[in-house]
């Protein structure tokens, strides 16, 4: 077997002689001793007996990076091509490849890897090593595999000036680009850590990234979560000892003190070079790179996370680009977020979150997910959890509460039609704010939650936008939209854009602000409200005032919201994580119906946000106007954003308008906007009428199929009483889990 433990021939040093040598060096050259000790301690504490294994395509810089990493750690460096393969074969890699051919070469290379072993070293794999499963399983047992992910265009450029004889699989009928693309599946299978490398990044910088990534991998303690209402300066020893991680907050949903979870150290920052390296990437590749940096591998291993993302955004979206950006007119662009199975932006989170949740929860307990929706969340969460494996459905159930008379007819049909054996919809005789507040109160009712755990072995969890996992996928599409504009040549990287979002619960807007914090050059975020414009007034004045306000039903029901839950996370951010202040503000809102932001905080807020609102009449006029001039139909929420964008943008940079739902979901309002005099009340008939317009975009495939299959089925309806909701929850648990 081929063993490598250090560069020089192994010297036998006894413990006594080693101690004597150390003592002499410490006395004669204390500075040199300190440097050597620091280097040894750094290497030993980071690696121990583990290896750092660098993996990536040819031209990724594995060999050079490996040498620098080894030098920094003071440990052996092994290049598989030069130090193992060529030594074993007694010939060059290119000669061996020419001698035996592609397929036999992979087998021989794998056999050599199976005979190789090392400890405490930095190992640079060949570009083709990951294609041999047995060899990779062997070497991975004692190492941390670091994937140097370099954009294909950069690799192609680097390899132009190099000899190509060592690239396995290259032949007259197969291009280098095809080989690089084919190999990605193997790299994704084996890596523990991804180090994303943009163009023109020095090897020294890549080496530092590798070391930082390995340190992060080995220390999950760095990525804990706190409540927006926690008083960090006055935290008890008990609170400090009970640390919460990503998997914990996915399951728990809401903090015990009523606050919302946020990462204690904030979100990761990407360099401009890293963002530019994603310009050529697909949506799925962008999501993988971004989310890996937000979710620690101790919670979900990177390779498993990549698999989950592939499942979520692969075949479930009707558009290959997943979230395409379409030019509307002038400097306005639409970010189309409705190509998922239930036709709204909620699909981006809710095709992903169920799989994250199923992975994170312990196998010893059943879970009931509680959801409150103002429309789109209901069908999206029902659809998402219905796609879990059957074994997961047996231990995970869901109940969706929605305002019985506060959603569109098609939305209601969707929510009823999407009910499954482990997922139900319950209409509540109230508005969304009641549904959301009721769920928060149920979560913080320890007597009730404790009773469910003891009596039924069932815990409660949340899948609303108050759950941290719901926000992360939304960051991805805001970042992706900007990168698409760069890719299309509309802007160069670094040029600013504005973003306009129809806003109710503030989750989508918060995700855009997070994308900005992570390095996307967003200038202003424009908050667009309908006549329920409490949020608009708050952004303009700093006063959040619910006194005397009643919810107004509108043509854009998803933003018919007066209490914006995710605003709490943003205020916690700009208040420098002052949980005491956040607690004070939201207690005052709960008890007195209003609060006022301090002048300095309002100034910070207004650097990020501007706001406006739109009436129903203006909303319908915008739909008619845009269709008349472009042939494109906006949904009612996008129309609200379009009206506000027209009023507030200064036209000095592009503006990306979030198109949060497909117009098919709001057919009666759309038909009214298009000046249709007589509207059939049957949702399916309404969609058929809309399809006759041959407009852009076409009628949503998933929505049409759902309505065809299910029609308007049965569902439960209950009074606006928390005790009644709790009774429903207990009954559903009894029926499903017992």
UniProtKB/TrEMBL annotation:
Amino-acid biosynthesis keyword on record: yes
Co-factor(s): pyridoxal 5'-phosphate
MF terms in GO: pyridoxal phosphate binding
GO biological process, one term: amino acid biosynthetic process
SUPFAM superfamilies for the chain: P-loop containing nucleoside triphosphate hydrolases, Tryptophan synthase beta subunit-like PLP-dependent enzymes
GO CC annotations on file: cytoplasm
Residues modified as N6-(pyridoxal phosphate)lysine: 346
Stored CDD domains: SK, Thr-synth_2
Domain of life: Eukaryota
Pfam families per record: SKI, Thr_synth_N
Limits of the Threonine synthase N-terminal domain: 235-313
Alphabetical UniProt keywords: Amino-acid biosynthesis, Pyridoxal phosphate
Annotated pathway: Amino-acid biosynthesis
Record-stated family: Belongs to the threonine synthase family.
Stored NCBIfam families: thrC (TIGR00260)
Cross-referenced HAMAP family: Shikimate_kinase
Protein name stated in the entry: THNS1 protein
Lineage, broadest ranks: Eukaryota, Metazoa, Chordata, Craniata, Vertebrata
């Amino acid at each position: 077997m081929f063993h490598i433990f250090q560069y020089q021939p192994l010297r036998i040093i006894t413990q006594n002689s080693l101690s004597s040598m150390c003592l002499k060096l410490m006395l004669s050259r204390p500075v040199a001793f300190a440097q050597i000790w620091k280097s040894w301690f750094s290497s030993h504490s980071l690696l121990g007996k583990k290896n750092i294994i660098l993996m990536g395509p040819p031209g990724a810089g594995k060999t050079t990076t490996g040498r620098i990493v080894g030098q920094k750690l003071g440990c052996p460096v092994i290049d598989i091509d030069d130090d193992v393969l060529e030594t074993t074969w007694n010939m060059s890699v290119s000669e061996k490849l020419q001698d035996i051919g592609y397929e036999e070469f992979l087998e021989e290379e794998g056999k050599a890897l199976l005979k190789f072993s090392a400890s405490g070293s930095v190992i640079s794999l060949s570009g083709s090593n990951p294609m041999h499963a047995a060899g990779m399983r062997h070497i991975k047992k004692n190492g941390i595999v670091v994937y140097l992910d370099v954009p294909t265009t950069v690799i192609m450029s680097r390899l132009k000036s190099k000899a190509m004889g060592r690239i396995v699989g290259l032949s007259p009928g197969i291009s280098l680009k095809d080989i690089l693309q084919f190999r990605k599946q193997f790299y994704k299978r084996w890596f523990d850590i991804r180090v994303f490398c943009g163009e023109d990044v020095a090897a020294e910088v890549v080496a530092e990234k590798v070391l930082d990534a390995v340190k992060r991998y080995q220390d999950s303690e760095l990525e804990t979560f706190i409540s927006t209402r926690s008083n960090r300066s006055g935290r008890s020893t008990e609170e400090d000892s009970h640390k919460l991680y990503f998997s914990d907050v996915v399951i728990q949903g809401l903090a015990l003190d009523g606050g919302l979870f946020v990462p204690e150290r904030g979100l990761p920052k990407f360099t401009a070079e890293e963002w530019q390296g994603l310009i050529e990437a697909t949506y799925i590749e962008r999501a993988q790179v971004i989310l890996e940096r937000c979710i620690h591998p101790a919670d979900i291993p990177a390779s498993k996370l990549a698999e989950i993302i592939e499942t979520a955004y692969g075949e479930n979206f009707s558009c290959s680009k997943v979230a395409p950006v379409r030019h509307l007119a002038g400097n306005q662009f639409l970010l189309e977020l409705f190509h998922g199975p239930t036709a709204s932006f909620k699909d981006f989170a809710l095709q992903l979150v169920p799989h994250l949740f199923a992975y994170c929860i312990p196998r010893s307990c059943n879970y009931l997910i509680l959801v409150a929706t103002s429309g789109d969340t209901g069908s999206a969460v029902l659809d998402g959890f219905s796609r879990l494996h059957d074994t997961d459905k047996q231990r995970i159930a869901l109940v969706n509460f929605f305002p019985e008379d506060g959603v569109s007819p098609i939305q209601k049909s969707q929510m009823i039609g999407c009910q499954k054996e482990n997922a139900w919809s319950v209409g509540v005789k109230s508005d969304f704010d009641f549904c959301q507040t009721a769920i928060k109160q149920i979560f913080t009712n320890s007597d009730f939650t404790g009773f469910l755990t003891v009596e039924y072995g069932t815990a409660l969890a949340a899948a609303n936008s108050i759950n941290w996992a719901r926000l992360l996928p939304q960051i991805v599409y805001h970042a992706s939209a900007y990168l698409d504009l760069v890719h299309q040549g509309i802007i160069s990287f670094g040029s600013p854009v504005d973003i306009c979002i129809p806003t109710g619960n503030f989750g989508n807007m918060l995700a855009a602000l997070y994308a900005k914090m992570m390095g996307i050059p967003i200038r202003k975020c424009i908050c667009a409200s309908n006549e329920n414009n409490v949020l608009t007034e708050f952004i303009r004045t700093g006063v959040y005032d619910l006194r005397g306000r009643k919810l107004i039903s509108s043509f854009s029901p998803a933003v018919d919201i007066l209490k914006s839950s995710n605003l709490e996370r943003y205020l916690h951010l700009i208040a420098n994580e002052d949980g005491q202040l956040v607690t004070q503000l939201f207690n005052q809102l709960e008890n007195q119906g209003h609060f006022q932001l301090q002048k300095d905080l309002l100034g910070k807020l207004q650097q990020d946000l501007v706001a406006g609102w739109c009436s129903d009449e203006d909303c319908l006029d915008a739909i008619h106007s845009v269709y008349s001039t472009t042939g494109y139909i906006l949904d009612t929420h996008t129309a609200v954003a379009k009206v506000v964008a027209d009023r507030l943008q200064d036209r000095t940079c592009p503006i990306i308008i979030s198109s949060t739902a497909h117009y098919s979901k709001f057919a009666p309002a759309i038909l009214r906007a298009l000046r249709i005099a007589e509207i059939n009340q049957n949702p399916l008939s309404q969609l058929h009428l809309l399809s006759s317009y041959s407009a852009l975009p076409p009628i949503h495939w998933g929505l049409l199929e759902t309505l065809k299959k299910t029609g308007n089925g049965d569902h439960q309806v209950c009074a606006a009483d928390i005790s009644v909701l709790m009774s429903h929850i207990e009954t559903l648990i009894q029926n499903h889990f017992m």
